Task: inverse folding
């Protein structure tokens, strides 16, 4: 059942799923974008997140301060989506936020770029406390659903968690990598420590 919503955008984030398999280089699914909003869902006033496709963002170029309405379905499993609502329909922009159409992405907002830009930049791990404290408005700082294939011989064995990563420039003064992520293997005690070595040469802009 679809639920109506209306609210003001607080941030625009890329919606990228990270897929891990022990010591393999992570792969990605570039799914679209998430709008973090404050407003009403049904009759309840609260903050919420909606998941949209890349075409919707390409059309509207969402930014902080936009007032948006529509309706969507609650995601069936909150462990596999950062957003709360998806399959959005009737999406309308009622009022524009203050950023210009060409505002570059940065710590305080701007327009989230095309998913191809995220793909080209690649990601680095980002300390979760730093993300929560300093990266709320930044399109580069993401809280990503991470699908872990526990046993690559039995790919149906999966775990899910959320990891914070940055797709932005290396010289951002707010950036803090935090501790490497630990990836479980198929046997008890098997752990791979991902210290981003494979991605150290990525051309962050």
Result:
């Amino acid at each position: 059942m679809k639920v109506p919503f209306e609210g003001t955008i607080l941030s625009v984030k890329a919606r990228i799923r990270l897929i891990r398999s022990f010591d393999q280089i992570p792969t990605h699914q570039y799914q679209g974008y998430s709008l973090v909003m404050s407003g009403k869902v049904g009759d309840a006033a609260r903050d919420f997140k909606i998941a949209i496709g890349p075409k919707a963002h390409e059309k509207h170029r969402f930014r902080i301060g936009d007032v948006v309405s529509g309706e969507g379905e609650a995601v069936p499993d909150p462990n596999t989506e950062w957003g709360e609502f998806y399959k959005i329909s009737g999406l309308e922009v009622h009022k524009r936020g203050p950023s210009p159409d060409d505002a570059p992405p940065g710590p305080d907002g701007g327009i989230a770029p095309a998913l191809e830009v995220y793909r080209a930049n690649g990601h680095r791990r980002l300390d979760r406390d730093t993300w929560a404290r300093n990266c709320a408005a930044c399109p580069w700082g993401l809280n990503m659903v991470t699908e872990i294939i526990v046993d690559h011989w039995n790919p149906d064995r999966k775990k899910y968690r959320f990891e914070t990563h940055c797709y932005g420039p290396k010289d951002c003064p707010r950036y803090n990598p935090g501790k490497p992520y630990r990836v479980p293997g198929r046997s008890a005690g098997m752990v791979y420590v991902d210290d981003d070595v494979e991605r150290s040469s990525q051309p962050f802009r």
Remarks:
- The first strand starts at residue 2 and ends at 20.
- Helices lie at 54-60, 115-121, 128-134.
- The two ends are 42 Å apart (CA to CA).
